[in-house]
């Protein structure tokens, strides 16, 4: 089929699909409407239909040069160095008649210096090219004629259906369709994107769970309308149109290039963004030309030497112009002498002598200086850094790898390290340590920061002896007999305590794994915070043990009377997921008796902004407790809830569905729906466990 035939065939399909018309795209006879610049339209499993748009390929390049730009760009980089620019000037000067030396004495050394430096740059860029080739040639399973075919990453196209196996990397930004795990979930590691090693959870739309086997996946003919490529790793706005049904898409259904699949046999996804349009590549800057502090100091040193050289030449030139005279017969300054030595024109003599002396004294600035440093750094990176056993990581069998030698000496000049406190200097382990419920603080533990502060101030802290009710588990390091084993029923406000525990057990995206028993169950969470909070709910007698797309099962203890255990199913109506912009997460659930409740947890700043009026004493007390937790080195979190009437929820849910399907300002519209819907009653302090070698 010729090129125009394919275009006509694609046009025919575009105009003939009854389930693919939308208000943002119109197709006229004999004319293909260009895509709306605000978003892109992708036809899944149909390369011909996507041919019109000419999406970018999936091949990536991280090299600094190419064949055409290597020489001009490489020379530009070399002549940024003051010494090279100086010797270029000297080489040009040596080709003039006033030069007392042959041009070869300056041109050859400069050429040799440039050649060695360019060879080093070419070698390092060649290694980048080889790495790109390895990545672009990585095999991936693509659906073709109802079977999986193995092709390299670089041949992948937008709209393709791919299969990624366990521990494999995602070749492009994918729409998550189906997984071998139940409930359409998968676990991914985003260490290459954000440095976080804890697993993140992604969940496919329930409508696409069946497209797992190649025979079934071949029937998938959905249309994706989504935002244009951008570099925001944590946002995504789009809709999936399938069989005349529009389903909103969120970051929870997107698998980004650079992430890897974990604890999942394989997943099936549709390619959304490829190559340099993927989010990770749009965040990657072009390879910069890095110059170390030493090089900049050398430039200043050479400028100082040039200043001394210029002063010497200037004094010599003035002296030549002043003292030149025909009375010195041995100089042979007759009438036919050239202008450079003609005593009748002393200014010309001084100027020309100035350039002559600059050429003669040019060796004051050593041309070999940069070459020597380049070779030393190159050998240092290849022979010392790459083979340093102290930088070898045994667990992952990963040696040190210096991708460039330009900044070697910077490693020994680090004076300050700026880091957040949540993962870089810690074991990424969170423990439930203290809490404030209804204005009352619970938890008797003392943090390392409190001990260290007391020691610095010469104070002695009386250690509180652990109670018999103390329970310790990964993620739970709480000790207070007033809340354990149902003792919360005897507190001043047991109803508030009960709502607090239910919020911990319901408001999350954690997935349980293993046996449905408190001793053997494990929780897969997007962050250690969430796992710690759900573990805390379990220890308080609200054991979350099962999740379906619409129901959370909680085994509650001591609700009606001490010792009584009952299984309660909560219907999940809506979930507003946490992100770094919203700084909170909300869940709307329905109790078995029909009660509808909105549970919310998030940063104290955003929760306090959304509180109903009143209850000032408890707000003030809780704010003070938050300050105490923070000064003790605890991460803090606020919990809140609100009862919703059926009428209010019905009208709210309609707006929620419309906002969730919007392609424009989706986050803003969802945010507006949550204002003034919560009532504060609890705050949490979560303990941050530091690495042993950095706890001081």
Q: Could you name the ranges where pLDDT drops below 50 across 5 or more consecutive residues? A: 1-34, 687-696
In DSSP terms (H or I, runs of 4 or more residues), the helix count works out at: 18
Q: Report Rg.
A: 35 Å
Structural class: alpha+beta
Q: What characterizes the major β-sheet?
A: 9 strands, antiparallel
- Would you tell me the overall average pLDDT? 81
Name of the top-level CATH class of the largest domain: Alpha Beta
Distance between the termini: 70 Å
- Indicate the multimeric state: single chain
Shape: elongated
Strand arrangement within the widest β-sheet reads 15-14-26-25-24-23-22-21-20
Residues in helices, as a percent range = 25-40%
Which superfamily, in CATH terms, is the homologous superfamily of the largest domain? Calcium-transporting ATPase, cytoplasmic domain N
Could you characterize the architecture of this molecule?
With 696 residues, the chain is α+β, with helices and mostly antiparallel strands. The chain folds into four domains: 149 residues, Calcium-transporting ATPase, cytoplasmic transduction domain A (Distorted Sandwich), CATH 2.70.150.10; 78 residues, no CATH class; 44 residues, no CATH class; 264 residues, Calcium-transporting ATPase, cytoplasmic domain N, CATH 3.40.1110.10. Helix content is 33%, strand content 22%. It has a nine-stranded antiparallel sheet, sandwiched between helices. A six-stranded antiparallel sheet has the order 3-2-4-13-5-11. A four-stranded antiparallel sheet has the order 1-8-9-10. Helix 3 packs across helix 5 and helix 5 packs parallel to helix 11.
């Amino acid at each position: 089929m010729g090129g125009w035939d394919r275009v006509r065939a694609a046009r025919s399909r575009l105009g003939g699909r009854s389930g693919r018309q939308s208000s943002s795209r119109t197709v006229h006879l004999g004319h293909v409407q260009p895509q709306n610049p605000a978003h892109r339209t992708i036809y899944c499993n149909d390369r011909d239909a996507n041919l019109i748009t000419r999406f970018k390929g999936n091949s990536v390049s991280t090299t600094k040069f190419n064949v055409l730009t290597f020489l001009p760009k490489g020379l530009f980089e070399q002549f940024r160095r003051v010494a090279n620019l100086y010797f270029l000037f000297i080489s040009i000067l040596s080709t003039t008649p006033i030069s007392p030396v042959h041009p070869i004495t300056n041109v050859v050394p400069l050429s040799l210096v440039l050649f060695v430096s360019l060879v080093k740059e070419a070698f390092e860029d060649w290694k980048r090219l080889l790495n790109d080739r390895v990545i672009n040639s990585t095999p991936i399973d693509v659906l073709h004629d109802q079977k999986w075919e193995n092709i390299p990453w670089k041949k992948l196209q937008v709209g393709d259906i791919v299969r990624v196996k366990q521990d494999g990397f995602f070749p492009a930004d994918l729409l998550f369709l189906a997984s071998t795990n139940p409930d359409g979930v998968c676990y991914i590691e985003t260490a290459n994107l954000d440095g976080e090693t804890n697993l993140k959870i992604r969940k496919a739309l329930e409508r696409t769970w069946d497209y797992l086997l190649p025979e079934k996946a071949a029937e998938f003919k959905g249309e994706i309308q989504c935002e244009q490529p951008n570099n925001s790793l944590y946002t995504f706005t789009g809709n999936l149109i399938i069989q005349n049904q529009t389903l909103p898409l969120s970051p929870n259904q997107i698998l980004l290039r650079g992430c890897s699949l974990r604890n999942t046999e394989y997943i099936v996804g549709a390619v959304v963004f490829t190559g340099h349009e993927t989010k990770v590549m749009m965040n990657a800057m072009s390879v910069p030309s890095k110059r170390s502090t030493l090089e900049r100091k050398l430039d200043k040193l050479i400028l100082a030497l040039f200043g001394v050289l210029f002063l010497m030449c200037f004094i010599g030139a003035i002296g030549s112009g002043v003292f030149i005279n025909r009375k010195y017969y041995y100089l042979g300054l007759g009438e036919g002498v050239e202008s450079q030595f003609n005593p009748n024109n002393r200014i010309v003599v001084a100027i020309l002598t100035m350039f002559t002396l600059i050429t003669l004294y040019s060796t004051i600035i050593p041309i070999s200086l940069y070459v020597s440093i380049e070779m030393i750094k190159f050998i240092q990176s290849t022979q010392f850094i790459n083979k340093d056993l102290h930088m070898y990581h045994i667990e992952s069998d990963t040696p040190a790898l210096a991708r460039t030698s330009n900044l070697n000496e910077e490693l020994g000049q680090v004076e300050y390290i700026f880091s957040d406190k949540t993962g870089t200097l810690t074991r990424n382990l969170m423990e439930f340590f203290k809490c404030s419920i209804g204005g009352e603080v619970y938890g008797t533990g003392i943090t390392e920061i409190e001990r260290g502060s007391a020691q610095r101030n010469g104070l002695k802290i009386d250690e509180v002896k652990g109670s018999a009710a103390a329970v310790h588990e990964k993620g739970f390091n709480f000790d207070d007999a007033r809340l354990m084993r149902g003792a919360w029923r005897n507190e001043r406000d047991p109803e508030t305590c009960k709502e607090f525990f239910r919020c911990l057990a319901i408001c999350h995206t954690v997935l349980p794994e293993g046996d449905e028993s408190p001793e053997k169950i494990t929780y897969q969470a997007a962050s250690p915070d969430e796992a710690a909070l759900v573990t805390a709910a379990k220890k308080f007698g609200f054991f979350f043990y099962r999740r379906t797309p619409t129901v959370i099962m909680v085994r509650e203890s001591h609700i009606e009377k001490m010792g009584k255990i009952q299984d309660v199913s909560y219907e999940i109506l809506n979930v507003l997921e946490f992100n770094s912009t919203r700084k909170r997460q909300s869940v709307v659930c329905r109790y078995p008796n029909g009660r509808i409740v909105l549970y919310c947890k998030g940063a104290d700043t955003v929760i306090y902004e959304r509180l109903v009026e009143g209850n000032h004493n408890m707000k003030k007390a809780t704010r003070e407790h938050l300050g105490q937790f923070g000064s003790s080195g605890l991460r803090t979190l606020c919990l809140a809830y609100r009862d919703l009437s059926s009428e209010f929820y019905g009208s709210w849910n309609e707006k929620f569905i419309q906002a969730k399907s919007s392609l424009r300002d989706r986050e803003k519209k969802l945010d507006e729906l949550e204002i003034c819907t919560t009532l504060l009653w609890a705050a949490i302090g979560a303990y941050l466990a530091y690495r042993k070698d950095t706890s001081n």
